[in-house]
Amino acid sequence: MTKSARAGVVFIRCFKKELLRFWRVAFQTVASPILTALLYLLIFSHVLESHVKVYDQVSYTAFLVPGLMMMSLLQNAFANSSSSLIQSKVMGNIVFLLLTPINTLEFFAAFLAASMIRGLLVGLSIYLVALCFVSVPTVYPGWIIAFALLGSALLGTFGIIAGIWADKFDQMAAFQNFVIMPLTFLSGVFYSIHSLPPFWQAVSQLNPFFYMIDGFRYGFFGHGDVSPWLSLAVVGSFLLVLAWLCLKMLKSGYKLRS
Amino acid sequence: MAAAIEISGITKRFGEFEALRGVDLRIEQGEFFALLGPNGAGKSTLINLLAGLLQPTSGSIRIMGHDVQTDYQRARSALGVVPQELVFDPFFNVREMLRFQAGYFGHGPENDAWVDEVIEGLGLTDKAHTNMRKLSGGMKRRALIAQALAHKPPVIVLDEPTAGVDVELRQMLWAFIQKLNQQGHTIILTTHYLEEAEALCERVAMMKHGKIVALDTTRALLKSHAAKQLSLRLTGTLPTPLQSLLKQQNGDEVVLALSELSQVEMVLSVLREANVAIQDMQLQEADLEDVFLNLVGNQKGASA
Q1: Strands of B112-201, DSSP E
Q2: Among A20, A95, A253, whose Cβ lies nearest the Cβ of B83?
Q3: Which of A54, A43, A81, A32 has the alpha carbon at shortest distance from A180?
Q4: What is the pLDDT of residues B213-269, one digit of tens each?
Q5: CA nearest A219: which of A71, A67, A61?
Q6: Chain B within 8 Å of A97 (Cβ-Cβ)?
């Protein structure tokens, strides 16, 4: 077998395994986040629809949909790679992966691709269900797809890093609740940052999650708090830095091979 | 022909602790080899270094001629390791798990026939579609061994494979492993059951404090380190010419260490000449446990 054919088999089998891992428990990994997002949509739109106006011609409920989609997409992309790795580490079955000739790139690509699929699947499902309640335009589909892919890749990569770094479930929960949650909730999922005082606007602009959500939302409405090109540059740069860090960790065997 | 395993000057430190202190070992292709030693001797560290789960402080290891660090893909492809702990992936059934495992080594559907052969050989056919989580301890152990064999490696390392395993499974397991050995696979085994090593392995290395303290064929080790023991209950004291053979004395019972069976005749004649009568006599065969205790135990003869 040629080297590239072998690498192809390794990637496909590892990717398939990671896909099946979440699909076998799809109630927990796909259906639950969809339901949670729809509850947010229901409650926030009911409470705030008549009080908040974000962009002209765009209802608050419609405004909320891309934000909730992106939030769920990011959280699930992160959860997939991080939980797979931390579970394998705690259960000890990570050894079956470490004993194999899988290389850094195959490892990274397979875990990343499965995380992206789960994130995208959850995001897309929320969109389809939300369409039953509210009409959401898609002005620039290209931007929507670009930010969905970049966002899921960024958080999938972040999940691999967290999964390698954490030694126990407690640390992973801390990572999720003290880093991922605040960054997503404070990124403009539920509001436009223009509604914030100047200081908090400036703080929000330091949050990379803000650019993912804003760029994504721009694709739907053709409006954003900042230029989609700026968002693309910020998100793309973050992705490159995290991917570089992740590959470096994998190559050195950090916390996996001492 | 490249050695199955060639270990040169391996040391491994964990902070201040020196787990391996210069290990050299060459295991030829087709051997059935045992690595013995008390807990903490460095056996598992050595296996983890072979498998690439740890990185050595110094020295090098080659598997089938491939360096485990610079040519790790070929080295790992040549190696199948059965881990000591009963670990498993709870999301998949046995057959899926084995196919995925083979996939990690670049094997596609063409390898499925071999996977089925392993499943059958280890008596897992009935459980092929059972989730790993639902298997009993013994079945999990079989699945663990099957996982190490999924990519048909020429070199197989079994780290304590029969710990906590019932007799029936142990015998079935050894029959299967012996068959693999006859087909040309090199087998390296660590075990606490010395009788297993004695029955199965042609060569044995014994480790203590991170070093190999004995390395020889099983037969030679038995011959040189623990010959036969003659236990005697005598009416009088042991005659002086026999004092040099005395191994231990418990009251009126003396235990003599004999290097050869022919010495029994000499002992009897010395006793006759000294007019010492024998009340009871027992001749014990030596086994690997005696060698083990002699070399790595706390006895006087132990050498580090």
Answers
A1: 155-159, 186-190
A2: A95
A3: A81
A4: 989 888 887 777 656 788 889 888 888 888 888 888 887 788 888 877 788 888 889
A5: A67
A6: yes
Structure tokens at A92: 């000890």
B83-118 b/e with 16+ CB inside 10 Å = b? bbeebbbebbbbbbbbbbbbbbbbbbeebeebbbeb
The two tokens of residue A258 are: 């001492």
Residue A18 vs residues A12, A25, A36, B171: alpha-carbon distances, Å: 10, 12, 23, 36
pLDDT tens for A140-161 read 999 999 999 999 999 999 999 9
Contacts of residue A110, Cβ cutoff 8 Å, sequence gap at least 6: A10, A11, A14, A15, A17, A18
Cα A29 to Cα A21, A117, A121, B186, distances in angstroms: 10, 12, 10, 43
SS3 B197: helix
Of A5, A13, A92, the CB nearest to B100: A13
* A98 interfaces chain B, CB cutoff of 8 Å: yes
Residue range A233-240: mean pLDDT, rounded: 98
Q: Which of A23, A96, A102 has the most B C-beta neighbours within 10 Å, making it the best mutation to test the interface with B?
A: A96
Facing residues of B233 across strands?
B253, B280
Task: Give the whole-angstrom CA distance, residue B211 versus residue B296.
Answer: 11
Phi-psi region of A57 (alpha: psi -120 to 50; beta: other; left: phi over 0): left
Name the phi and psi angles at A189, rounded to 5: -65, -45
For chain B, the helix, strand and coil percentages under 3-state DSSP, each to the nearest 5:
40, 30, 35
Q: Which two tokens stand for residue A159?
A: 């999940």
Per-residue pLDDT of chain B (304 residues; tens, 9 = 90+): 899 999 999 999 999 999 999 999 999 999 999 999 888 889 999 999 999 999 999 999 999 999 999 999 999 999 999 998 889 999 999 999 999 999 999 999 999 999 999 999 898 999 999 999 999 988 999 999 999 999 999 999 999 887 777 888 888 888 989 999 999 999 999 877 777 888 899 999 999 999 999 898 888 877 776 567 888 898 888 888 888 888 888 877 888 888 777 888 888 899 999 888 888 988 887 677 777 777 776 543 333 3
| CATH class name, domain B5-222 | alpha beta
- Give residue limits of the domains in chain B: 5-222, 228-285
- Amino acid identity of residue B174, one-letter, is W
| Residue numbers in A near B107 (CB within 8 A) | 9
**CA-to-CA distance for B121 and B125, rounded, in angstroms?**
9
Q: Does B101 reach chain A within 8 Å, measured CB to CB?
A: yes
Residue A9 is nearest to which of B77, B92, B107, comparing CB atoms?
Answer: B107
CB atoms within 10 A of CB A58: 17
Helix, strand, or coil (residue A141): helix
Global pTM reads 0.87
- How far apart, in whole angstroms, are the C-alpha atoms of residue A42 and residue B154? 60
